[in-house]
Write a structure and sequence with these properties.
Elements: H1 25-51, H2 55-68, H3 73-92, H4 96-101, H5 103-113, H6 121-132, H7 136-153, H8 157-170, H9 175-190, E1 207-212, H10 217-233, E2 238-243, H11 248-253, E3 261-265, E4 271-276, H12 285-289
């Protein structure tokens, strides 16, 4: 079951945790309008994905649309139909023989589909069975692969490379691991600037992790502030932006239950402070000072 992230900004008439800047009536109206607009955009995106045969994306988009506008019966109907189609497609493409041949990839693919089909407990049982049958090396490979995926979600690309390499040493035949390594190789070639995570003297940079959601009104207001901080501190600070709605593992990693949220980590990766909800730039400065900036 996917983690249902409780937001500080989605619900109509819900007041965000703004101790110093309480929202005005116009702010609340804008938030409501933003939610409805985002719900419409998500429905249209899901419809386009469905027409292309991309059921996973369609299900994800329509699920998010219903979070913002739960009374949409047509979206609910579309979502139910897409889930049933995906279930039939998934079940026709798996078998115990395939699970045994490459159990790590089978487990990854099963757990990828599982959050999209929460009503099908047989998929959860299948995932548990596959994982229970892994030997010691396969368990190490899976743990390293999942660590790599977490690093990707947190945009820590060097760590992702190392984790996938570890997974490969324990399960070189796993298709999902091979795919991940090829993806990282391609990404390194296309975007080499994503990989430096150290300062000029070789030390790891402190991090400011900004966790947001694209449909969140308060995140939209705060995003330019994060950009200002990033520009101001430049090479002294690693600013990481994580879409917590799409990367729920990252939200769990930092125990974030609302958007926006900012987590501050020192050069050793230890959390030194966090801020929940929308704040002005001056509220970020004391937390940055704790990082020595």
């Amino acid at each position: 079951m996917r983690l249902l992230v409780l937001t500080l900004c989605v619900l109509s008439l819900t007041v965000p945790l703004l101790a110093e800047n309480p929202p005005t009536e116009d702010d609340l109206k804008l938030a409501q309008l933003a939610n409805l607009t985002r719900a419409r955009d998500l429905y249209l995106a899901g419809d386009a994905a469905s027409k292309k045969g991309d059921l996973e994306t369609a299900i994800w988009d329509w699920s998010q649309a219903l979070k913002l506008k739960p009374d949409s019966t047509y979206t609910s109907k579309c979502l139910a139909q897409a889930r049933e189609q995906l279930y039939k497609k998934f079940m026709s493409g798996v078998s115990p023989k395939m699970d045994a041949k490459d159990p790590i990839t089978a487990y990854v693919r099963t757990t990828t589909v599982l959050p999209l089909l929460p009503e099908h407990q047989d998929i959860a049982a299948r995932a548990d069975k596959i994982k229970g049958g892994l030997d010691a090396d396969q368990q190490k490979a899976l743990a390293a692969y999942e660590a790599g995926q977490m690093a990707l979600a947190l945009q820590d690309y060097p760590k992702a490379v190392g984790s996938f390499a570890t997974a490969q040493t324990h399960a070189r035949e796993a298709v999902c691991v091979q795919d991940a390594i090829r993806y990282m190789d391609t990404l390194r070639q296309k975007r080499p600037e994503l990989f430096p995570a150290n300062s000029s003297n070789g030390e790891r940079l402190p991090q400011m992790v900004y966790i947001y959601a694209t449909w969140c009104h308060w995140c939209t207001k705060m995003s330019p502030i994060i950009d200002e901080v990033s520009a101001q501190y430049g090479s002294k600070l690693s600013v990481i932006r994580v879409d917590g709605d799409k990367n729920e593992a990252a939200a769990r990693r930092y125990n974030v239950h609302g958007f926006p949220a900012v987590v501050f980590l020192d050069s050793k990766g230890t959390e030194v402070d966090r801020i929940s909800g929308y704040v002005a730039k001056d509220r970020l400065l004391p937390s940055l000072a704790k990082l020595g900036l």
